[in-house]
Amino acid sequence: MAGTLAFDEVTTPYGHSGRMLGGSATYLSFAASLFGPKTGVVSVVGDDFGDELLDKFRRRGIDLQGVQRLAGHKSFYWKGYYYENMNRRDTLVTEVNALEHFDPRVPADFRRPDLVVLGNLHPAVQARILDQLDARPQLIVLDTMNFWMDTARKELDAVIARVDLLMLNEEEARQLTGEFSIITAAKHIMQMGPDYVVIKRGEYGSLLFHADAVFMAPAYPLEVFRDPTGAGDTFAGGFAGHLSRYESFGFNELKDAIICGANLASFTVEDFGTRRLENLHRDELRERMRKFVEITHYPMLERVYE
Ligand code: AMP
Predict the structure, then answer these.
(1) Average pLDDT rounded to a whole number, residues 280-302
(2) What architecture is domain 6-298?
(3) Ligand 1 lined by 237 (C-beta under 6 Å)
(4) Could you say which of 38, 70, 198, 274 has the lowest number of CB atoms within 10 Å?
(5) Beta-strand (E) ranges in 157-261?
(6) Overall pTM surpassing 0.90 (yes/no)
């Protein structure tokens, strides 16, 4: 997994978080490690990212050999503001800091993975990570965001062409393709390279596209919803963690994985930052998945048409 290890600060209708642990690689790896696969992180931090924070990863069995510390620099910092409708957020500050000087090094132990998740990072850095792999993974997943569409579009298009699955939210899919319909946007993205596209729609769920097929996964209906930060990365990490249980990754396995990723992400948003994810027990996820199946099961065809 690759992405940012960062400090975040967010304001949501529930209040202000203060400075807290964040970053795409944080949510990705915390989420994936719940499922037990060997999880390694490629990222960069500055002097301000203390050992007590790195220990949070080590305690989860996450391998940090691919994390560099750049002396004299600060870690990536992101500040966001969420509106009443928390599907909408504004980025107030993005300080790239150490990431600007980051030359990723993929450790020898990580060069033959089954699955790679390139979390939100500069697309040129994402590409340099792929360049260092010794064998093509079964599945390469790419996550990105509007920031990189605005600042590094050429590099972003080049890396999109090299991956199997692009994951992005509805608004980003529209921005990337210039298409309003998300179905047309997904088709457009599949022409850019990926065989699969996942479009996330916040509390309205997500869609998985592959050739002419589409699958829709609802989001778990939540009563407590405090901070959406990291929902997308938790989704991707849970998706990858769940997939690691399968031998091969086809459309049916990917359907299971987006349901699992979505249910896991529903915990992250219940509290600020990583707090809920850090304290989550696997039994709680299993119970939520059970409830999810119960509330989405509706065998209408059998009753109405037979
Ligand atoms: P999300 O899952 O989309 O809510 O991701 C939120 C996380 O992404 C935060 O913890 C941020 O630190 C991180 N982040 C925000 N902007 C960027 C960016 N441009 N590149 C990489 N990571 C980012």
Answers:
(1) 91
(2) 3-Layer(aba) Sandwich (3.40)
(3) no
(4) 38
(5) 165-169, 196-200, 206-210, 213-217
(6) yes
